[in-house]
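user: Please review this fold.
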Amino acid sequence: MARRRRRTRGRNVQGIVLLDKRPGITSNTALQEVKRLYQAAKAGHTGSLDPLASGLLPICLGEATKFSAFLLNADKVYWTELRLGETTTTGDAEGEVLERRPVPPLNAGRIEQVLAAFRGPQTQLPPMYSALKHQGQPLYKLAREGKEVAREPRAIVIHRLELLEHEGARLVLEVACSKGTYVRTLAEDIGEALGCGAHVTALRRLGVGPFRVKDAVTLETLQAAGDSDGLDALDRCLLPMEAAIQDRPELRLSEDAAYYLRKGQAVLVPRAPTEGLVRLYQGNGEFLGIGEIMDDGRVAPRRLVSLG
């Protein structure tokens, strides 16, 4: 007996919303609000921001969700404010104070000396207050129950770590880092290296891969646009789905090659790159998805869009 297809509720809308999430709400709450405003059938975000944090949260709608992993794995840029002399249960201002210590006399030279030690490749132990899972349970749920489990250190890279401001117990930094970096953990480690401990009091994500928060819109702006001019105004705020992979080379396919590629077959394309992932377009400019160059020079489909 043939299975019935589940009816899709919502619009079949495609693209990426660059959302400037306000502090105080979860990333999932922001996602669901964008999905509601767009009346979208399908939506997903590209890496959670803590409720405390604000800033760039790219949200993928429709077929764009197929490329969300590229943004999830992309480098990030953060602005963060630290309070020296206090450690908390969560590593940020939402936790309870664990310890208070005097802040030693610090100058820019001493702070720079400490920051220099944190730049470059390193390992970082994920915090208990994180969404990582242990035996199917998010670590933060276990942490709230007073439990602590062993975690494996992760390889990360701090590409840039700059001192922006320092006054008393207040320290402001800008961090450019690889995926999987916990700024709360970095803040705690910097505080320990300075001899007084620290926690994050404010966090704002400035960049995700090729995107910057200056180009983002708030939920309030989206709501106002929808109230004023309807879905057309909201759709004008969308980036094309291929914007998530704009750093990949572009490759145009003939109509025949596009036909066979859509059937799941690798195809030979003249003047294709010799390796790596490529953005695939039909000759008329229609975006097909992403492909990978095989050892024999053919292009194999990896993530294709389906707009039918």
About this structure: The longest strand covers residues 154-167. The mean pLDDT is 91. The radius of gyration is 23 Å.
